[in-house]
Design brief:
alpha/beta, Spore Coat Polysaccharide Biosynthesis Protein SpsA, Chain A, Rossmann fold, 14% strand, 9-stranded mixed beta sheet
Length: 652
């Protein structure tokens, strides 16, 4: 056996399908075996592999033991001269494996091989070639010097930025997404260190290969797509903690004395620094627009106050200081909350929801105006003027942001993206059917032939004119049909057209269309599979609003309602937990035996769909089905119904 390909999968069925299709093509002329180790996925990955890829050897774990253990399970069963550890969110070229075998056969000193990787938008991934971490390397990477000086031998040794990405090089570290290993070397140095659950195992194994006297190589004569982000959310605190803790394990294992102490200290500082940056970044991304809106509203109100007090009351000091520090912040807070709950922050061009939010907020202000003490009541005209300013300033802000980003003022016009499909007319028709079933709205320009001379006038152009088509028709998205195109030609065009276009690939006979526009975000997917209503932003917002309103209502009425609850103290505690966002009134029915990882994440619930029923015990399959239906068909009315029928249990 020449080659053993091992893929560890966890809940990425659609990407796994595409990876296995590309592996099948790459293995046609090679004596090979393919393993898929599934770490207890709940998305029917195992069933899909067994049905569509009967030649693949499946190891179905009942738990998730981690990346290292899963790979080692397959390595023990494999028999290939070479072992390839491959991520499920990758696509290899048809001749990738043949080229790698030839390269390794010609270099008996080579212990491992990495490869040139691009992401789903055609960008080169710098982690294709890496240097060993050290205190200095960790410092320069953590604090951004590697990005400031990407070609420096000193500051960017982590990604070896000074080495040409289009040439083969000897490197230190192989990327875990594609680790081509010589079995005789593995027999000598041992398999993956199972201390590493995720991250760090590739660095550790690469380090041991070099310590044993072998070389690791970066191979630029073939390319793979690595979508990234499917198993990793780089914008999360969990990623930061897991990654740097893996580096600490590596440092304790391989460094001694002062070097180890310094490295571990650097990594611990990096955890806090990166966590802080992540928190700030996530906050800015989600809150920058409301903050800018609030600042503009405050500035406008400040000048309106002076204008109205001088113009109408003939007294520049008519309004007390409390107006500036109490009334204005109160008005602005009500408007911002109202905009949020009306969907004005879902997208920047939601002008209708934005205006509606400010109007509803103003109505609410008018309603509570009479309840304020006399000293806090100001001119109602000023509230109306403030409303007008809020509408004008927030809309103007969105037009300016849109202009600086896109250099036009077409905000509010939801321009349908221009789509071109590259493939046969038959596959193009099938793709359009998938898009229709998935409810994806695109402006279909036409089909580009997969051949150089199409010979059919129904095609938009021949294959080698794809760049002209993209330019002339201002194409936003290209979908490649892998049934009609080689992976090599797809990657060539992705690299040539660059990042101004979104790319998707539809695998042969697949019901999914896959792509990604960023190496740091999850791959994008068009599929006809079930859509969960509870994952919709509007429904999630309405659920939170319902939680708040019910919590406030229950607290106000608690002297009366608390007697209807089985646990009086728990009644008030749960009201508070829901009000501050620690719980929701309704969540999934959860227990150690019920896996809910395949459902959209929501807050834990005081009640669950089970509370709607008057049955004491249900089987696991029934409970799973109830959770599934709750997520799939969610409405606020469902939550209210569950609360009504399970009211006596809200104190538990």
């Amino acid at each position: 056996m020449k080659l053993s390909v091992i893929i560890v999968n966890y809940n990425v069925k659609y990407f796994l399908e595409q990876a296995l299709l590309s592996v099948r093509q790459a293995c046609l002329n090679i004596e090979s075996e393919v393993f898929v180790v599934d770490n207890n996925s709940v998305d029917d990955s195992v069933e899909m592999v067994r049905e569509k890829f009967p030649e693949v050897i499946v190891i179905a774990n009942k738990t998730n033991p981690g990346f290292s253990i899963a790979n080692n399970q397959a390595i023990h069963q494999s028999s290939g001269e070479y072992v390839l550890l491959l991520n499920p969110d990758t696509v290899v070229e048809e001749d990738t494996f043949e080229k790698c075998i030839q390269f390794m056969d010609e270099r008996p000193d080579a212990g491992g091989l990495g490869i040139k990787m691009i992401d789903g938008s055609g960008r080169f991934l710098p982690e294709s070639k890496r240097g060993f971490p050290s205190p200095a390397v960790a410092f320069y990477k953590t604090f951004g010097f590697s990005k400031l000086f990407p070609k420096s031998k000193t500051f960017n040794r982590y990604h070896l930025g000074f080495l040409d990405k289009d040439e083969n090089h000897e490197v230190d570290v192989l990327a875990g997404a594609f680790m081509w290993l010589r079995r005789s070397v593995l027999d000598e140095i041992g398999l993956l260190d199972e201390t590493f659950f995720m991250y760090g195992e590739d660095i550790d194994l690469s380090y041991r290969i070099v310590k044993a006297g072998y070389k690791n190589y970066y191979f630029a004569d073939s390319t793979i797509i690595h979508y990234k982000g499917e198993s990793t959310k780089k914008g999360s605190l969990n990623y930061v903690k897991t990654f740097y803790n893996a580096m600490i394990i590596f440092a304790r294992k391989h460094f001694q004395g002062e070097q180890a102490w310094l490295f571990i200290l650097m990594l611990q500082l990096a955890i806090y620094f990166r966590a802080f940056i992540t928190l700030v970044s996530n906050f800015v991304k989600s809150a920058y627009l409301p903050i800018l809106d609030g600042i503009l509203m405050f500035l406008g109100f400040y000048f309106l106050k002076d204008f109205w007090s001088g113009y109408y009351f003939k007294d520049p000091d008519y309004y007390p200081a409390s107006f500036l520090f109490f009334n204005i912040p109160l008005y602005i807070s009500i408007w911002l909350v109202s905009i949020y709950f009306n969907g004005g922050y879902d997208r920047q061009n939601n002008l209708r929801q934005l205006t509606r939010g400010i109007f509803i907020g103003t109505v609410f202000l008018a309603a509570i105006y009479g309840f304020l003490d006399l000293e806090y009541r100001t001119s109602r005209v000023l509230i109306v003027l403030g409303m007008v300013w809020a509408v004008v300033s927030t809309i103007t802000l969105r037009f300016l942001i849109h202009f600086f980003k896109y250099r036009n003022f077409s905000l509010g016009n939801d321009k349908s993206q221009n789509l071109v499909i590259v493939g046969s007319l038959e596959e193009s028709k099938r793709v359009m059917g998938l898009l229709h079933q998935a409810q994806v709205q695109k402006n279909f320009i036409g089909t580009v032939s997969p051949d150089e001379a199409p010979g059919n006038k129904k095609y938009l152009s021949e294959f080698n004119q794809l760049d002209e088509v993209v330019h002339v028709y201002k194409v936003d998205e290209v979908i490649f049909c892998s049934k009609d195109l080689s992976a090599q030609s797809i990657m060539k065009w992705m690299t040539k057209l660059g990042t101004g276009v979104d790319y998707k690939i539809v695998p042969k006979e697949s019901l999914s269309i896959i792509g990604s526009t960023s190496k740091n975000s999850a791959g994008e997917l068009y599929t006809i599979d079930i859509r969960f209503q509870i994952a919709d932003r509007r429904n999630r917002r309405n659920k939170r609003l319902l939680d708040i309103l019910i919590a406030i209502g229950l607290i106000i009425l608690s002297p009366i309602l608390i007697w209807g609850s089985k646990e009086k103290l728990g009644f008030l505690k749960n009201c508070w937990k829901v009000l501050v966002g620690r719980l929701s009134w309704v969540g999934y029915a959860d227990s150690a035996a019920i896996n809910i990882e395949n459902l959209p994440e929501i807050k834990g619930g005081v009640l669950s769909p089970l509370d709607r029923l008057k049955i004491n015990s249900l089987g696991e399959a029934t409970i799973k089905r109830l959770n599934y239906l709750y997520a799939k068909d969610y409405t606020s009315a469902n939550d209210f119904d569950i609360l009504w029928k399970g009211f006596k249990n809200i104190g538990r």
